[in-house]
Amino acid sequence: MIKRQLIIIFLFMFGGTVVAQTGTLKGKVTDSAGTPVEAAVVQIENTKLLTSTDGKGNYKIENIPVGNYSVLVEIVGSNTIEQKTEIKDKQTTVLNFNLLQTVVELKKVEVVRPFVSGQGMGHMPETYQGVDYSGLKTEVLVLDSLNANKAQDNFRETLGRLPGSNYSETEGGGFPSNGIAFRGLIPTQSTEIQTRQNGYNISADVYGYPESYYLPPLIAVSEIQVIRGEASLQYGPQFGGVIDYQIKDAPLDKPLEICLDETGGSYDFNNSVVSIGGTYKKWHYYSFADYKYTGGWRPNSNINQISAFAKVEYDASDKFKIGLEYTLLRNLIHMPGGLTDAEFDQNPDQSFRSRNWLSTPWNILTLTADYKISDKTELVLKSTGNMSARYLVWKGEEGGPQQADSITPSGTYASRSVDKENFLSTTNEFRILTNYKVGPINSTLAAGIRYFQGEMWQEQEGAGTTGNNYDLTIVPRSWQDSLYFTTTNVAPFIENTFHFGKLSLTPGFRYEYIQSTASGFTSGENLIQDTTQISRTWYIPLAGFAAQYKTSDFTTLYGNIVQAYEPTTYENLAPVGFVGTVDQNLQDVSGYNSDLGWRGKIGKYLNFDLDAFYMVFDDEIGYITQPNNQLYETNVGNSIHKGIETYVEVHVFKIFPDANANKIGDFSFFNSYAYDDSRYVSGPYQGNYEEMAPANIERIGINYAYKKISTTLLYSYSSISYSDANNTTTINPSAETGVIPAYHVVDWSSSYRMKKHDLTFTFGISNLLNAKYFNFRAIEYPGPGIIPAPSTNFYVGLSATF
């Protein structure tokens, strides 16, 4: 393994010795009165080259490879201005921008891009790819601008700037990916937030099986776009909002670009990524293949994983483009099992299960089409097919985590259980966005419809083998549960933004039709009779309202209130991997999200977003601990989630206008803090905290960049939370319930860029001070019991672009 890595590093360092031909771009940005515009972001499209204007409106970008480019100017609260130019070898090209160009140039702009600050944190524009974001709380992270452990998909480091983001760090404990949630919702497998890639859904069933078993490798992601719960009208009625991973795009200025990335680290970690992309005439293509292996920081926690992606786009005309995307995941995960509280306190590195395995093959095929009928009207279509599965072979929960997976008195291991879920679904989303004018009022109409058809075949607790390898063989006709589910969803929606100068008002409406069927047999609560099909239908109207007010050219007030809904389909009544019991009279959950916030920039030195939120849940579904210590899933009562989310980023040296960044570099820090008071307000547990809902989440980052080197130190804190609605504090032998203690974690990450050879070195240490903590108690797999978070581990990486 070490020899192979050394060979790859040697090839990276000496494989491309041709000196690149480069030039310089400079200019000035002024407003309609000719006044210089400060802090406008100037970027060479489809490259990492960007800067911002100084107090005199001037900008300068050096070391640009020769060629023809589109240059974008992005200003907070405004649309993007675009001009084309040519960069010549050893020459300086002058390109000035005037905001009078906005009316003219907007007709030439093909894509309005998200606004992002120079340090990688920003927000969505008012409209983007057929979606209206006016008045909503949105966030955008540009990953290439961040120092973070992306090769190991470390959510804490990569997404830590998002205020209130709460994670279940389980990737090395048996789940394929870490989970994320906001505002007191449960983060496990991201079940309460809609997960998307390039704008389309990537979970098996957004209603019946929303777990995120596939996430794109973060090292291949360019942007992460987050829309909080107010996204329910245009995306679906989930309370948790949307997280959308944008895969890197094909370069537009060359026919072929090859990128290689190799990362090694603790516990035999290895991550190898190869990507190929380019543009030839009207064709654009991009693909990557990612191989990941780790021996795991606990025994029995090794992972083998291959992720791949391919995209081809064709510009049929200036107005119409069509594309095809394919995503693949193949993995094999060894699950080390959970620990009791006593075992965790003694040694969180230990494992007592050696025969537990999980595999989640995932296949996603998506057709995309974008048609600009005119400069004012755009049609967007995304049609997705998902054929995926989850296969599990494991000892089971019998005896709890304290019972080792040992050989029986007869000299053999006990038979393992086998679970299989196969998914087949299609999702078609059609959107139209048009700008129009009635009298003096400029308006934007966003409308569309989603049609989803999904099927799931679920077979559980088959009698498996007595071996210890990954083996799905079962005793014939031994399934205890064999169920077939279908979900049909049709959802039209419409929103309209009315612009009154600096004020924008957006009312909206969505209508959800959902039909869920189930058939088969189960040995549990006799929910579904043998060979009998049952069906249930929902008709759900949802309404919302958002407002936005531009307090300056660079700052905006935003607010909204939007209804949300969580239907209880049959998959909820027969959940996968749940050892407790389920209330067979579960009721739907309804409520609403609301926000009031202020965001923007002050000069080049301050970027901020201050927000207060209020969420209401009626008949919240949760877990309670019964007298026999068994968990029971039911409608616990009504709950309210309320709090504040703040993000402040300061570039210290830029406060002083005479500071010379070329001599002293850039020193910045950010504070991402959320206070969340999520409690039950009715029912037997009135006043108790919601499950897995820490009241305080704080992250402080310090970054220093000087010429080619950049380094970041991140401190993360999460306060105490509870695993059940009882807020149980006593130690449970199964470790399924109890306190999730507060924890503090420090991470360090750095990079060194050699632009001349397009080489980048990355290195860092995650959990620098070796904090011993956990943020997830598993009810069943991958436990049961405590799933410890990773201990100290280092990584070193090298990437090259040819």
Describe, in plain words, how this protein is organized in 3D.
The chain is mostly beta strands and 802 residues long. Helices cover 5% and strands 53% of the residues. It is built from seven helices and 47 strands. The strands form eight sheets. The protein has a 24-stranded mixed sheet that branches. Strands 9-10-13-18-19-16-17 form a seven-stranded mixed sheet, with no helix packed on it. Strand 28 (417-438) and strand 29 form a beta hairpin. The two termini are 24 Å apart. The relative contact order is 0.12.
Secondary structure layout:
Elements: H1 2-14, E1 22-30, E2 41-44, E3 50-52, E4 58-65, E5 67-74, E6 81-87, E7 92-94, E8 97-98, H2 101-105, E9 115-116, E10 121-123, E11 127-128, E12 131-132, E13 138-142, H3 155-158, E14 166-168, E15 179-181, E16 194-197, E17 200-201, E18 221-227, H4 232-235, E19 242-247, E20 257-265, E21 269-280, E22 283-294, E23 303-315, E24 320-335, H5 341-346, E25 356-359, E26 362-372, E27 377-394, E28 417-438, E29 441-463, E30 481-500, E31 503-522, E32 534-550, E33 555-566, H6 570-573, E34 581-582, E35 589-602, E36 606-625, E37 631-651, H7 661-664, E38 666-680, E39 696-706, E40 709-718, E41 721-722, E42 739-740, E43 743-754, E44 759-766, E45 774-778, E46 785-788, E47 793-801
Parallel strand pairs: 1-7, 1-8, 16-19, 34-37
Antiparallel strand pairs: 1-4, 2-3, 2-5, 5-6, 9-10, 10-13, 11-12, 13-18, 14-15, 16-17, 18-19, 20-21, 20-47, 21-22, 22-23, 23-24, 24-25, 24-26, 25-27, 26-27, 27-28, 28-29, 29-30, 30-31, 31-32, 32-33, 33-35, 35-36, 36-37, 37-38, 38-39, 39-40, 40-43, 41-42, 43-44, 44-47, 45-46
